[in-house]
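## Example pair
The file below holds two records. Each record gives the amino-acid sequence first, followed by its structure token line.
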Amino acid sequence: MSLLNTLSLILEAATAGLGVWLGWSKKKNYGWLIALTFVLYVIYDLSRFLNLALPAKGLLFLVASASIFCAVWLLAQQS
């Protein structure tokens, strides 16, 4: 795994952690959706790094895309 991939994985995990923090302590539903999106990204990246087969890569990205779409929608509704 290259340095760039490692940094990307760290940022994805940190973003997922911030999403959990937003959902848990700030009671923001979009935080949970952000966390879900980036946890799925971490799963995908780790599977590539560990050479694991993901049977449903397309479904993984569909759920991640729907999750971040809903998070942005909730953010837009607040303003």
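Second record, same layout:
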Amino acid sequence: MLRAIFRACYARFRHCAEKEKRMSRTSLQLTGKVRKNTWGRKDEEYVADFCLVSRRSLTESEHRIFRYHYLLGADWRLCCRKLGMDRGTFFHTIYRIQAK
């Protein structure tokens, strides 16, 4: 179940990150009982939150794999070569990352 949630979040991350920046929208949001308005860029905020949550919840070695594979888009061969690990260890770590 957690892996399915991760995949849905990652799909949204990719969608937000691959959009052309000039197509980004700002939105006005009401916050609190005082009716204060704040402007925000929801796609950019989602991308930033996705990266921040990964940095906070993963170990340093898991975050390196996450950064190469998910954020930079490297395939498993390049990640294994760059990180000096075998294929089995790489995929076991990927499964652990998705389950966190």
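Notes on the second record: The first helix runs from residue 2 to 18. Residues 25 and 41 are 6 Å apart (CA to CA).
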